[in-house]
């Protein structure tokens, strides 16, 4: 009896092990793609309908054109970046590791020399290593554009969709994620744009302290609309910005999106989104992947995508864009050309 | 029905140490089985390019592969070629284990004294900052090299322990002299810790060369050194010395409980406060002392997080302190059990990362799998504790001085 049981156990164990060995290589694998990409997102995570989702869009677009598979992690805090990057690098299976967001720069400058054969790219920051390609954007220029738009509209009597301006007061608002040089450069450009349009206009600003604090974004924007009489609020705050749109809808005012055309990615709020300061993170990711596929990845270089390269742009809202007066659009288009020609100097610091 | 239930409880309460281990292993297998079905079924609702086609459905996730990554990925895939003992996966597992031993011990010490310390996280946060700041500033005075290592690391750990201990003493004092519920005060002090450290950081200690909220790095020689030859390489953020220290501390706490009068008084206060008071234990002093010890252990956890993992203090400290509560509960608040529970948590956390890079299974699902395992393994212990309360083991036997707990020796 005892022997039977022992034999049964041994048999089961052997069958189990064989089963594991057989199954592990089976379905659910990544498949055998030519190129594998690891994505490490910024702390806002996927579903922010802006920055991270744009980066993901880039790799999804690339997957349609190339034989490619990708894997992604969403670190919850800055202390996890180092491990997340290293998990991908350590496996050695990835042809490119995409680090989304400036907060990953510290971790990457430690990891890049450690894995010299591994290609990395980083968005929004510069890491000077031979195996890292850095992409930075002309955020101040793009923010200047939407600032110009906001400055022109705040003085006019303008109603469209679910919002209207308050022509008696020339106040516009800015909601930022965290106080950092990058986000402050959005604010600096925005303020310069508003001032360019209207020297008397006032810009109120607030930093919520996080990129995924929707409730915080909502209360910050609500305070601007209600207490400070702002009628247009621009956000550079990832998912926190969704709260800004909610507040705009509640108060019947306008908001300006960031990173992608948020009137398209958030159709529920299309009736208050005047425009979006689009930052083509997807283009950056796509072009880096393309260079890896074509075997001409240029590490150690920094690519700046500004207004001229269409890395940043003012894109009018899907629903409200047609109702914005043509003379306003013309003026914004003129300032764009003036920035490209170097006639307007956009500050990048407050 | 009632008799049947009572019988099962009696059986659990009377289970020997070996039986309890066996029950835990069986629970682990049951959790794997249930989780596997869950993974497989949820794979039916995902979209992928390579899946298993079955009766018109495409199942994307392979439970076998997921558990392979979870358990063997945590050891660095020992069944695959080119495996070496000092690999990154195992380093991550042991790093987590080390840190969770400190956090788990912190919670266990308070638990045994009858206090629910939910504030280990806060104590760890302030302790870690104290360590980083002390070492960064002391490094300017202390010579570098070997002397720096020998002086700065104990100094840093000491600073973390002192500040963490002080931070733990606050709710202890509030409990002892103000009758403030320690659960509420420790929870609130966690928020205070996060806020105060963030403010102190931006006020004085922010690294000027970085956009991230963090202190300046400690000098390299002040990070926990690795053992030559058999140790893990420096970039893996894990040192066997730290693990050895954690294990030594664990044994020390077990010895404190089992063999010292302080430990005896602490345990008695937890089991039967009235009896302890009658026996001459100063209840208030014991509350403050056990909370201080608990806080100091949390602070040491923070010190090792700083000196071993990042070499600096960062805002947004991972939730080690909260995981410590689960570790301690899983271990039945026994110090030696904390080691085993911390290792299980280490495997789960390191394996989760391995799943993240090795498969398409979303992190939320991996969280469910880890949760299932913890739940299944903890449940028998939970019911045993419950049973102990209502149906004490061997009531027919004469009462023992340790309150019928059976002591730590056989746990």
TrEMBL record, chain A:
The reply to whether Iron figures as a keyword in the UniProt entry is no
Q: Which UniProt keywords apply?
A: Cell membrane, Lipoprotein, Membrane, Signal
Q: Where in the cell is it found?
A: Cell membrane
Superkingdom of source: Archaea
* Coiled coil ranges: none
Return the Pfam families for the record.
Bmp
- Record has Signal as a keyword: yes
Could you name the Gene Ontology cellular component terms for this entry? plasma membrane
Membrane topology label? Lipid-anchor
Residues in domain ABC transporter substrate-binding protein PnrA-like? Answer: 37-348
Q: Which InterPro entries match?
A: BMP_lipoprotein, Peripla_BP_I, PnrA-like, TAT_signal
PANTHER family given for it? ABC TRANSPORTER GUANOSINE-BINDING PROTEIN NUPN (PTHR34296:SF2), TRANSCRIPTIONAL ACTIVATOR PROTEIN MED (PTHR34296)
Similarity section: Belongs to the BMP lipoprotein family.
- From the Swiss-Prot or TrEMBL record, give the protein name: BMP family ABC transporter substrate-binding protein
Task: Give the species this sequence originates from.
Answer: Natrinema salsiterrestre
TrEMBL record, chain B:
Single Gene Ontology MF annotation: transmembrane transporter activity
User: Which chain regions cross the lipid bilayer?
Assistant: 21-46, 98-118, 124-142, 149-170, 182-203, 238-258, 288-308, 320-345, 365-383
* Localization annotation: Cell membrane
Q: Which organism is it from?
A: Natrinema salsiterrestre
Q: What is this protein called?
A: ABC transporter permease
Superkingdom of the source species: Archaea
Taxonomic lineage: Archaea, Methanobacteriati, Methanobacteriota, Stenosarchaea group, Halobacteria
Q: Which GO terms describe its cellular component?
A: plasma membrane
The protein's topology relative to the membrane is: Multi-pass membrane protein
Name the UniProt key words of this record, in alphabetical order: Cell membrane, Membrane, Transmembrane, Transmembrane helix
